[in-house]
């Protein structure tokens, strides 16, 4: 178990404006408590990480120690959950558009 400092998902209140190849973009920083939080279930950890994955275009996986095989397995599983979550969201949104706009 890890004694995490962040609880849930923290979102920085104001986006950072950047110029990328001549295009203005807004960067929003998220911080999550990560896996194996003291007093939290694996299901909770997986859902937090999956939500952060869906919300992010770039993801940095930071650990306070050497990466273990179990960390890679958990990361892989959370990405699978995020893909499923994203697929359901897109399907629901497309269904909504189909039935409400056409």
From TrEMBL:
SUPFAM superfamilies found in the cross-reference section: P-loop containing nucleoside triphosphate hydrolases
Domain GB1/RHD3-type G: 1-102
Keywords linked to the UniProt accession: GTP-binding, Nucleotide-binding
Pfam family, one: GBP
MF GO annotations: GTP binding; GTPase activity
UniProt cross-references to PANTHER family, sorted A to Z: GUANYLATE BINDING PROTEIN (PTHR10751)
Stated family: Belongs to the TRAFAC class dynamin-like GTPase superfamily. GB1/RHD3 GTPase family.
Descriptive protein name: GB1/RHD3-type G domain-containing protein
Organism lineage: Eukaryota, Viridiplantae, Streptophyta, Embryophyta, Tracheophyta
């Amino acid at each position: 178990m890890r004694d995490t400092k962040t609880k849930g998902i923290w979102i920085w209140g104001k986006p950072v404006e950047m110029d990328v190849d001549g295009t203005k973009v807004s960067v929003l920083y998220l911080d999550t408590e990560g896996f194996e939080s003291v007093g939290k279930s694996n299901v909770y950890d997986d859902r937090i990480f999956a939500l952060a994955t869906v919300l992010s275009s770039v993801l940095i996986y930071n650990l306070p120690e050497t990466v273990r095989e179990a960390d890679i397995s958990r990361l892989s599983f959370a990405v699978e959950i995020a893909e499923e979550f994203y697929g359901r969201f897109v399907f629901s949104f497309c269904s909504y558009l189909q039935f409400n706009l056409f």
